[in-house]
Amino acid sequence: MTSEPPADWMTRELSRRAAAGLLRRRSVAEVGGRINLASNDYLGLARDPRLTEGAAMAARAWGGGATASPLICGLLPIHAELERRLADLKRCASAMVFSSGYAANLGLVASLAGRGDIVFADRLAHASLLDGARLSGSRLVRFRHNDAGHLEELLIRHEGAARRVVVTESVFSMDGDLAPLRDLHAVARRHGAMLVVDEAHATGVYGPGGAGRTVELGIAGEDVVAMGTLSKALGSQGGYVAGTERLTEWLTQSARSYLYSTALCPAAAGAALSALDVLAAEPDRPERLRRRALEFRDRLSSGRVPVPAGDSPIVPLVIGEARGAAEFASRLEAAGVLAVAIRPPTVPPGTSRVRLSVSLAVERERLMEAADRIAAEWRRWRS
Ligand SMILES: Cc1ncc(COP(=O)(O)O)c(C=O)c1O
């Protein structure tokens, strides 16, 4: 039997996705005069002159690229400085910088578990955490979203596994809700499991000076690993893992996404260092963001938009079907608000949504104007 030509199966698959309203499009972002509620630049730092200058200085000092993977000759003094600063931020002994948050999760989870082990993941955990579990060759078991009781049941049921690793996000990327980290930590500890906390959307947003929720709740320690990205509130690019010296030593032996990939671009390291400087100089910036997010949520609510409780800058408008979410995002775009439809497999079927994110890059008045326009479109949509 001859195999089906790629032109045939790709065309068939693409048509199938288009028919289900699930076709993804790559289009160059054109904000134009629209109000941008689609980025993860929560603190409004990506275009801050202090960051662009930090990036330019690092590029001038260290070049356009790191030239090699960290264990060859790519680990530069600027990376070492960034790792020290991140370790301090996370109140940990050590930190390790990866070329992206995705790479950090891939390398981290695949290093903590292997064949015969089990990774327990929140049902809504990010793709990069799940991909790390898959790469590890361990078994992946999902617990109900934010349900520490269900996690405990599963840990008891799988008592026999050699190593057990629990993975969750601390602020969920598509829902903006917070994980019950204290409960998850207590359960994991009771059963001798390690807890990996993805702080991608908490870094720069929660905790003292934006240190994240592991610091805010005081759960850093031997059995907790925090990871995060430099690419969201910190306005740069790259990812990090923070924990003990022993953990860094272990990742140096085993994290394939670290070992077999060129080290983080110096300009990204420079921009991230500048972002940490801004956070140190303006420690109230995360709180200002959360206050702004609360105001935005309140304004939507008073416009009769159903908004989940919370103060994170991520606000999901759950629509249900994929086509509906895409249609509502187009309507918002026509009304001058840039927001993206999020559809399966990024979110579970039947929960397609438009994800709104608050950024300090958008002035308060413009943000409130956006809330009013969204509310008007929502009421028209629902009527
Ligand atoms: C929860 C979570 N973890 C990890 C990542 C990956 O981070 P990065 O974009 O830096 O690769 C993202 C971003 O998409 C995320 O939302």
Structure description:
The protein has 383 residues and is an alpha/beta fold. It is 45% helix and 15% strand. It is built from 15 helices and twelve strands. Strands 2-8-7-6-5-3-4 form a seven-stranded mixed β-sheet, sandwiched between helices. Strand 3, helix 6 and strand 4 form a beta-alpha-beta unit. The mean pLDDT is 96. The site of pyridoxal-5'-phosphate has 14 residues, from helix 5.
CATH fold node name of the largest domain: Aspartate Aminotransferase, domain 2
Per CATH, the class of the largest domain reads Alpha Beta
How helix-rich are the residues, as a percent range? 40-55%
Give the count of helical stretches: 15
**Order of strands across the widest beta sheet?**
2-8-7-6-5-3-4
Terminal CA distance: 55 Å
| Category by helix and strand content | alpha/beta
Beta content comes to 5-15%
Number of domains: 2
Main sheet characteristics:
7 strands, mixed
Tell me the number of strands: 12
Q: What's the alpha carbon Rg, rounded to whole Å?
A: 21 Å
Order of helices and strands: HEHHHEHEHEHEHEHEEHHHHEHEEEH
| Each distinct ligand | pyridoxal-5'-phosphate
Annotated CATH homologous superfamily of the largest domain? Type I PLP-dependent aspartate aminotransferase-like (Major domain)
